[in-house]
Design a protein that fits this description.
897 residues; alpha/beta; Aconitase, domain 3; 4 domains; seven-stranded mixed β-barrel; globular
Length: 897
């Protein structure tokens, strides 16, 4: 340890700058090594990092803090509340149960765009949000009062990642005595936005977040680090959004899944910090664990702009320079596992879509690419028709030569129009009509340049007499209240409102599917004529069905382009050569006529100052009148409402003894699901809307909830009764026990009855029969989701046998007391002749379980007995402790007792 004097303060730090061979390490890796040193981890593993080979070294990372959003955060707080109840039942002090690391929860995922295009849209949406979520909010408000180290940012304040960037993040943490890097994990994949500020942090599932909250380390492999070099500067007309779509496309092509990406090179000095945050935000879209920008002069300037205290700013600068973590243009390039390079001057205006964020389309080519995609969506490959051929024909506008009949047939379908009458207007909606135009998502609403750019474009459009088309649902959902301050101060807000981009809420809206209903006549026309409607949003995700179930083509774009497409009303347009509309004199108005110049944007941005940030964040945890007047239970333990359908006491600690019992073999087990390869956490974990005829829907109806008030699985994550009924219920799940079905179906044995997975589980639990899941390769791939492990545990699953696992999901299974086993090389259910109808014995557990131990498995079926060995995928002594205790929560609770 050594001392660092900053002003009148002296801090204790863990020095890393003098470590052997570390000077040319990537900055992000240096921060991991400091973390290992400070917590007594395997420093040698970090120091032996070799850029030329993939490491198999597992390290224990301990983040300085945890960040939650409300969908994923509620179940974390539910578990903490249940742990307090368990402490009280064991005659211990429940107040001992608190997060051991600082935890911030930002309520941002619950606002929906029900009202839009009107001055009162914000107030109306906020009122409905509180009506829908009152039970959840009262519970979180209780948590805010009851737990130490736990803060809640109330609803209608901002989006979690933008609030983190503008206020919560410290860059360098201090407890008054010690100073160390601000690191975090968050229960949202776009936690990586904070990498733009020089903070190492990424998204995890709820179980890892709970572990971190309770002082447990996060196990991870020492990462490969890919360097992305920037040179030059963005040209006139190119935005940060265009840059991030280019970067996303390049990195997806490169292949950076499970790797760190670190940006370097002289081009960084021309990138404002909000541009960096935009790029870092979309790290999940290019597949990296993080997208890191080192601290430099621009970082310090942003800390000043956002109103951080001078003492903190001085500490950040002094600490990073002392530790070799401060970048300048003279800093030698770090050594990376691999590199790629981009000249910023080559970035051009772009969109991404219609279904994936990595599918960048140059604006100049957008019309042709849309028509190609439209052909594929409307016709596919039927009759061997080449969609490109049809697109080319349309692009050419016909020719003297008559096309073959198949092309004419398909052109007829593409020209489908539906007459609509709405709001006093009559118009046609057709393929390509833009029905949603949303300035939304922390990705871009944190960036003053593109937000003010959208406002300036709106101003010029209004002055030219342009209006938004009547079929477009417009919305403005900034990620913080600071945005509204500078839109007002620059004078552009009235023009956005004139184009019906009225404020609808401060939170995640269109980007996560909270776009709200389309006007009924427009939705009806889309359904009746099976139209390919379009959404253009300034978000980060555009997967089919995510933005709105009726919108099949979704494009990511900069906020100015969102406004432009709302004016055009269609994606079937070349904005570089075709007019957006006509002015009052009938003259054509093109995008170039209203696009703001870089100078205009730069001048307007002078209105953004630190006082805006200081004012809006002065009482950030206070909330409005709706929040303050919530009826909140008092006391150290939560008063559970037995009638609540949102927040229920989970059963994890019911009848839990003070000491864990002896491990036992798994005997007489039945297979709940026999699955194939690449079963993702989306297949396992409940998500999206709740079908009325599903077990979860029937549960809600039985408890007096009408279909219109179902809300989503995400909003009901604090109710295990709803979530367990939605586990393995994904409509695309294929359980080989019930061939010919899709969704949550299985067979109950020994009677062979076809039933839902939940109902079969209920019957097995009554019969005292333990359950297993058998799967192929890559079980649990995709995003880390806590309910992908919690749900199976509550269904009675005691073990999973798979060919291979996604690393984090394997860990999550252990965290919920489920034993992950792996078939030996060359074996799988098919080669072993397993049908799933057998009774299973898993032996060798009670004799002594060790990481990697081979266990004997015996499957007794109608055709005989199949014996094989499976590998225990518990990998560390710590994981073995979790499993012995029945899960990580039980382990931590017993440690605290």
């Amino acid at each position: 340890m050594s001392e660092l004097k900053v002003g009148s303060h002296t801090y204790t730090i863990t020095p890393i700058s003098g470590l052997k061979n570390i000077s040319r390490f990537p900055f992000s890796l240096k921060i991991l090594i400091e973390n290992l040193m400070r917590h007594g981890g395997d420093v040698e593993a970090g120091l032996t990092w070799d850029p030329k080979r993939k490491s198999d070294k597992e390290i224990a990372f301990r983040p300085a803090r945890v960040l939650l959003q409300d969908f994923t955060g509620v179940p974390c707080v539910v578990d903490l509340a249940a742990m307090r109840d368990a402490m009280k039942k064991m005659a211990k002090d429940p107040k001992k149960i608190n997060p051991l690391q600082p935890v911030d929860l930002v309520i941002d995922h619950s606002v929906q765009v029900d009202y839009f295009g009107a001055p009162n849209a914000f107030e109306q949406n906020a009122k409905i949000e509180f009506e829908r979520n009152r039970e959840r909010y009262a519970f979180l408000r209780w948590g805010q009062q009851a737990f130490r180290n736990f803060s809640v940012v109330p609803p209608e304040t901002g989006i979690v990642h933008q609030v983190n960037l503008e206020y919560l993040a410290k860059v360098i943490f201090t407890d008054g005595k010690n100073a160390y890097p601000d690191t975090l994990v968050g229960t949202d994949s776009h936690t990586t936005m904070i990498n733009g500020l020089g903070v190492v942090g990424w998204g995890v599932g709820g179980i890892e977040a709970e572990a971190a909250m309770l002082g447990q380390p996060i196990s991870m492999l020492l990462p490969e680090v890919v360097g992305f070099k920037f040179t030059g500067k963005l040209r006139e007309g190119a935005t940060a959004t265009d840059l991030v779509l280019t970067v996303t496309q390049m990195l997806r092509k490169k292949g950076v899944v499970d790797k760190f990406v670190e940006f370097y090179g002289p081009g960084l000095s021309s990138l404002p910090l909000p541009d960096r945050a935009t790029i870092a935000n979309m790290s999940p879209e290019y597949g990296a664990t993080i997208g890191f920008f080192p601290v430099d002069a621009e970082t310090i300037a942003y800390l000043k702009l956002s109103g951080r205290p001078k003492e903190l700013i001085d500490l950040v600068e002094a600490y990073t320079k002392e530790q070799g973590l401060f970048r300048t243009d003279q800093t030698p390039d770090p050594v990376f596992s691999d590199t790629l390079e981009l000249d910023l001057a080559k970035v051009e205006p772009s969109l991404a879509g219609p279904k994936r964020p990595q599918d960048r389309v140059a604006l100049s080519n957008s019309k042709k690419e849309f028509r190609k995609a439209l052909c594929e969506m409307v016709h596919g490959k039927e009759n061997n028709l080449d969609p490109q051929r049809v697109a080319d024909w349309i692009e050419e506008g016909g020719s003297a030569k008559a096309p073959d009949p198949s092309i004419m047939h398909h052109l007829g379908k593409i020209g489908t129009k539906a007459a609509v009458e709405f709001n006093g207007s009559k118009f046609d909606v057709q393929h390509g009509s833009v029905v949603i135009a949303a300035i939304t998502s922390c990705t871009n609403t944190s960036n003053p340049a593109v937000m003010i750019g959208a406002g300036l474009l709106a101003k010029k459009a209004v002055e030219k007499g342009l209006t938004v088309k009547p079929w477009v649902k417009t919305s403005l959902a900034p990620g913080s209240k600071v945005v509204m301050d500078y839109l007002k101060k620059t004078g552009v807000l009235p023009f956005l409102e004139k184009l019906k981009f009225n404020l609808v809420g401060f939170g995640c809206t269109t980007c996560i599917g909270n776009s709200g209903p389309l006007p009924e006549p427009i939705g009806k026309a889309i359904k009746q004529d099976d139209l390919v409607a379009v959404a253009v949003l300034s978000g980060n995700r555009n997967f089919e069905g995510r933005v709105h179930p009726l919108v099949r083509a979704n494009y990511l774009a900069s906020p100015p382009l969102v406004v432009a497409y709302a004016l055009a009303g269609t994606a079937d347009i070349n904005l570089e050569h075709e007019p957006l509309g006509h002015d009052s004199k009938g003259n054509a108005v093109y995008l170039k006529d209203i696009w703001p110049t870089e100078r205009e944007v730069r001048e307007a941005m002078k209105s953004v100052d630190s006082e805006m940030f200081k004012r809006q964040y002065a009482d950030v945890f206070k909330g409005d009148e709706l929040w303050q007047t919530l009826d909140v239970p008092k006391g150290d333990t939560f008063v559970w409402d037995p009638k609540s359908t949102y927040v229920k006491h989970p059963p994890y600690f019911v009848d839990m003894p003070a000491q864990p019992g002896l491990l036992k073999n798994i005997s007489g087990a039945r297979v709940l699901a026999l699955l194939g390869d690449s079963v993702t956490t989306d297949h396992i974990s409940p998500a999206g809307s709740i079908p009325e005829d599903s077990p979860a829907g029937k549960y809600l109806i039985a408890h007096g909830v009408t279909k219109k008030d179902f809300n989503s699985y995400g909003a009901r994550r604090g109710n295990h009764e709803v979530m367990v009924r939605g586990t393995f219920a994904n409509i695309r799940l294929r359980n080989q026990l019930a061939p010919g079905t899709e969704g949550g179906w299985t067979l109950h044995f020994p009677d062979g009855k076809v039933t839902t997975i939940f109902e079969a589980s209920e019957q097995y639990i009554k019969e005292g029969v333990p359950l297993i899941v058998i799967s192929g390769k890559e079980y649990g791939s995709g995003s880390s989701r806590d309910w992908a492990a919690k749900g199976p545990a509550l269904l009675g699953v005691k073990a999973v046998i798979a060919q291979s696992y996604e690393r984090i999901h394997r860990s999550n299974l252990i965290g919920m007391g489920i034993l992950p086993l792996q078939f030996q090389e060359g074996q799988n259910p098919a080669t072993l002749g397993l049908t799933g109808g057998e009774t299973y014995e898993i032996k060798g557990i009670q004799e002594g379980l060790d990481p990697g131990k081979l266990l004997d498995v015996q499957a007794k079926g109608s055709s005989g007995i199949i014996d094989f060995k499976a590998i225990c995928r518990i990998q560390t002594p710590e994981e073995l402790n979790y499993y012995r205790n029945g899960g990580i929560l039980q382990y931590v609770l017993r440690q605290l007792v």
